# Entry
Amino acid sequence: MEVADSAVGVLMEYRQLTTASAEAGGILLGRMLLQSPDVIVDEAVRPVATDRRSRFRFWRARRPAQRRIEAEWRTSGRMVNYLGEWHTHPEDTPWPSCHDVENWCRLGRKARYEQDFLIFLIVGTTATGAWEWSKSRSSVDLLGHFANPIPAAE
Ligand SMILES: [Zn+2]
# Structure
């Protein structure tokens, strides 16, 4: 997985670096690379006004994200897809809550997407964790933790 520079910028901007900052999140949009198993995250979509955000929870509004996915899919000539989700945690090295894992599995089973997997990022204060939902295995696995700022694609 590669993450575009601008997407890394958005992820880092919403880190919960003070005790007042609430969780943030959104969808990940990107492309599958041709003739490669790799995937590039082009955009981490920012939170919208109708999301619900508190210090320890984030609820993403469904409709704005769905509209955005459909618009990107059309305007990109079916290149840009829904790849997964990101959200922040007020902890150094983030781990998913039970709620997170349940939500990821629900999305993996119910959401519409082209590829065999979804990517889930949790942005902590000093590191970002990446998990992958595999459609064929019906399971969520840790891809790894990366020190912030996570490396951007070349
Ligand atoms: Zn969480």
In short: The chain has one domain: 2-147. The chain has a mean pLDDT of 95. Residues 2-147 form a domain with the Cytidine Deaminase; domain 2 fold (CATH 3.40.140.10). The pocket of zinc ion is lined by residues 87, 89, 96-97, 100, 122 (CB under 6 Å).
